[in-house]
């Protein structure tokens, strides 16, 4: 046990170890096969950004890295009963929208899957995906979707880097390959903000110099108003390596923390604990949001600002209106709406974020009623709707959506409902419930939060014409 976590001496061996060694045998042939003797033509993009074609016998084929209109030969790397999955073997005729990916790691890293497609075309694709998913639910928005977007590079202010020591003792640091546990070494990243990307080479060198690199699970990087924070996920303490991390943090001016242990590790600051903040737009100037590592924070600060500004514009004059913000986090929408004059009740399930939300309201001198509730319970949402008679509701749920909240809102509708989504499939499901329950979709926006990826965020505004409550903008009775 004395060598637990130590670097193993290099030795010759075959096969794989760790997570890869425990995987089930691959469903695909180990050697890719070509699709017949004829080239295929890509018909469209699937929602996940892969090209869609059909073989000569009519079988659907999903092709990584292929674009609509392209003629190419495909190598199938996974054959399934109803469809095949493949990649480009040779490109015969390229799309005019194909571009050279800006990142040298594009072909291997699973982080960005659309860098070969021009940025404008990526965004048109995301709009089309959202409209198609809504249309499948019988929803066809009359207004054209707005596009909220920023730069295509240098936008991501947080990242999680995997660390792995291979069987020969080599240390790897980077992101996962697509659909794989395999780690791709990353020397720089075009979508990270420059302060984070610049740390990748020295971080790799540091991890390679540790005495117990196997005890490092992953690294979290985060940029805030206070600079860069590094959080080390570590299985066991190692005094010598702890000092190496501290020296590194001092050299690079970082805030340093770790999460130590296997089960529910708590955050432990190794440098003086900072009060991390970011800024969001308010009705009369900037608002300050405090947060901690692990709290939900939108990765793209510029697009997040546009989403907040859009919410304020769509909802209009909310002075004095009772507003219920569900899945409120640390106050990303609650505080700007309170600053605009709304009487906000902000509800969040995570106790730590509830505490920080209340502190953020006090720091910005805003009156916000902050409550903790399990929003997966129909009764909890119904009680919140009944007690406050809100005129506006805001939903900003995680990827699994807000199905329970939407059911409650159909039973107890509000005049206006703003739904902010990070998953178009669950959004379409919830939007169908709302529309079939009497709501009308009046505004729609696609937010390109993660340029060069197929990830899609959106904002929808619903109105309910038959609520029987006070019209939006009227003076409340109290």
UniProtKB/TrEMBL annotation:
Residues 1-31 are annotated as: Disordered. The active site is at residue 422. Its EC number is 2.1.1.190. Pfam families: TRAM, tRNA_U5-meth_tr. Keywords: 4Fe-4S, Iron, Iron-sulfur, Metal-binding, Methyltransferase, rRNA processing, S-adenosyl-L-methionine, Transferase. InterPro entries: 23S_rRNA_MeTrfase_RlmD, MeTrfase_TrmA_AS, NA-bd_OB-fold, SAM-dependent_MTases_sf, TRAM_dom, U5_MeTrfase_fam. It catalyses: uridine(1939) in 23S rRNA + S-adenosyl-L-methionine = 5-methyluridine(1939) in 23S rRNA + S-adenosyl-L-homocysteine + H(+). Residues 28-90 form the TRAM domain. [4Fe-4S] cluster binds at residues 103, 109, 112, 189. Catalyzes the formation of 5-methyl-uridine at position 1939 (m5U1939) in 23S rRNA. HAMAP family: 23SrRNA_methyltr_RlmD. Belongs to the class I-like SAM-binding methyltransferase superfamily. RNA M5U methyltransferase family. RlmD subfamily. This is 23S rRNA (uracil(1939)-C(5))-methyltransferase RlmD. The gene is rlmD.
């Amino acid at each position: 046990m004395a060598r637990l976590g130590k670097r193993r001496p290099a030795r010759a061996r075959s096969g794989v170890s760790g997570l890869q060694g425990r995987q089930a045998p691959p469903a695909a042939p180990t050697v890719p096969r070509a699709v017949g003797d004829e080239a295929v033509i890509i018909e469209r993009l699937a929602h996940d950004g892969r090209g869609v074609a059909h073989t000569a016998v009519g079988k659907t084929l999903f092709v990584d890295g292929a674009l609509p209109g392209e003629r190419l030969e495909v190598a199938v790397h996974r054959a399934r009963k109803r469809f095949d999955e493949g990649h480009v073997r040779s490109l015969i005729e390229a799309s005019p929208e194909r571009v050279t990916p800006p990142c040298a790691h594009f072909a291997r890293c699973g982080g960005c899957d659309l860098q070969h497609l021009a940025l404008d075309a990526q965004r048109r694709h995301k709009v089309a995906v959202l409209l198609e998913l809504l249309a499948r639910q019988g929803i066809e928005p009359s207004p054209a979707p707005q596009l909220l977007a920023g730069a295509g590079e240098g936008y991501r202010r947080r990242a999680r880097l995997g660390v792995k020591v291979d069987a020969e003792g080599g240390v790897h640091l980077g992101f996962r390959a697509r659909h794989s546990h395999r780690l791709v070494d990353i020397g720089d990243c075009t979508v990270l903000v420059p302060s984070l990307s610049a740390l990748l080479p020295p971080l790799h060198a540091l991890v390679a110099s540790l005495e117990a690199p196997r005890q490092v699970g992953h690294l979290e990087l985060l940029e805030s108003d206070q600079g860069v924070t590094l959080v080390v996920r570590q299985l066991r303490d190692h005094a010598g390596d702890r000092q190496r991390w501290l020296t590194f943090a001092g050299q690079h001016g970082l805030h340093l923390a770790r999460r130590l242990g296997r089960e529910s590790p708590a955050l432990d600051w190794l440098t003086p604990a900072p009060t991390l903040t970011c800024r969001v737009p308010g009705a009369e100037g900037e608002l300050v949001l405090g947060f901690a590592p692990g709290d939900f924070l939108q990765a793209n600060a510029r697009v997040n600002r546009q989403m907040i500004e859009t919410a304020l514009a769509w909802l209009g004059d909310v002075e004095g209106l009772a507003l219920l913000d569900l899945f409120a986090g640390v106050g990303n929408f609650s505080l700007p709406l309170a600053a605009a004059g709304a009487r906000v009740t902000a509800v969040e399930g995570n106790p730590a974020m509830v505490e920080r939300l209340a502190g953020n309201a006090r720091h910005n001198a805003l009156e916000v009623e902050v409550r903790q509730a399990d929003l997966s319970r129909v009764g909890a949402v119904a009680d919140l709707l009944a007690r406050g008679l809100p005129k506006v509701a805001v939903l900003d749920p995680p990827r699994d959506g807000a199905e329970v909240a939407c059911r409650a809102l159909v039973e107890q509708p509000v005049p206006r409902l703003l739904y902010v989504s990070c998953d178009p499939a669950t959004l379409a499901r919830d939007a169908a419930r709302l529309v079939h329950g009497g709501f009308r979709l009046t505004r729609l926006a696609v937010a390109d939060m993660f340029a060069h990826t197929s990830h899609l965020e959106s904002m929808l505004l619903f109105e309910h014409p038959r609520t029987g409550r006070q019209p939006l903008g009227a003076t409340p009775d109290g």
